Every structure is written in C-alpha cells, then in structure tokens.
Amino acid sequence: MLDAVRLSLTWMTVLPLGRTGIPGAGAAGRAMTALPVVGFVCGLLATAAAHGLHSLGAGAMLSGAAGVAVVVALTRGMHVDALADTADALGSYAGPERAREIMRSGSVGPMGTATLVLVLLAEVAALGALVEAGAWLAPVAALVLSRCLPVSQLRRGVPAASETGFGALVAGSQSRTAVAVIGVISVAAGAALAGSGWGADRWWAPAAGATAGLAAYAAAAGFAGHAVRRFEGVNGDVLGATIEAGTATALVVAVLLL
Which residues face 155 on adjacent strands? Predict the structure, then answer.
C-alpha cells in the first residue's frame, strides 16, 4: 500500500518521491485506488497556504487564489488542462474519433476557456469563503472527495478511449471491492464538508454532506458512461476533468453547509 501511495503521489503531484518509469497494470491500478491520499496531501497544503495568507491580512479572494494556485502548482496544472480539453471535446458535438483529436490538440477553444474560468472562479471564491470562516476540515475534505471520484470511472467493464496513453493503463483497474471502499470514503469526506457544523443546531449538515458525497460519486460513475458514448471510453482527460469539476463542486457544497 505504501508503494501505491508513493506512486500515486509521484504521478499526480510534483513531489519528488523517486519513482520513475512506467509501472505495470497492477501497480497502476493500486496507485489509482490511493488517489484519496493525494487529495489529502494537496488539500492540507492548499488550506495551510490559504490560511497563512489570510492571517497576514489578505482578503478571502486572495487567500482562496493562493490555495488554488498551490494545488495547480502541485499537480502541474494537469487537471485544469484536462477540464478544458474535455469541455472542448464535449462542446464540439463531434463523433468519437474527432472528439479525441480535439482533446489531444493542445489548444483551448471557447467552451474550454469558459468552463475553466467558471470552475476556477468557483474554487477561489469557495475556498476563500471557507478560510474566512476559519474552516480547515472542509477544504481538505473537498480535495479528498474529488480524488475519490475517478475510482468509480475506472471500474471493471468501462473501456479505455484508446489503446495507448494513461487511460489505457488504468481503465478497468478497479475491483468491486475497491469501488465500494472508495465509495464509503466519498461519503465520509462528504460528511466532513460540514466542517464545524456538527452542533445540535446544524445536526443535518453532516448528513447533507454525506448525501452530496454519495451523489458526486454516482455522478462521476454516470459521467464515465457518457464518456463511453462520446469518446468510446475513458482517458486521462476525462479523469482529470472529473477531479477538477469535483473539487469546485465539493468546495461550493462546503460553503453551503457553513
């Protein structure tokens, strides 16, 4: 399990943990199961940065921007790039082959640009609001939840969009047990979105958050089905877009549960 966590952190962040080369399918699958740990690390560092800047007198928006910037830097911007590529491909209404070409093109069209701006703006504003409210648990939980979502998309039976690339390495790698266990973690992370709202006057907040976590996990699984129809399978862009959109959604839910 420690090897899986190390590989997952090496793949998904810039942290220098020493693992190089392309792993085998088994190791790659275990690394994807360990994605929630990556979310915890990124969430903790981003929240600390946002709170640190806020303590120096920065406002909510600047603090939120600092936290989001930390995540983008840690992840080499791969998820925001994936979100833009996926939005452009979906917005094209093109067939599977052409849609995949759009995802690989490296350019960003109007749909990708608009989606990226709105999602990042939501993340900055929501994280800033959470930091201003003094929340630590909720933003960390949001990033953990977002990193749970791809596991539901990598369940057995969901094909890769192409025979090469990251998607081909990890598609179908998650067993029913793994999907179920990470689903439970999604529910727990959703409950933690309530942050400090555990008092008697807000007894419903953790339950609402848990429901949101389960709904997000189910929605991610459903999006994988849509990706099969549009792209003939899942790929790295689909997974990254799910993570980025999931982060924004979870942060906004956390704000609503304050």
Answer: 174
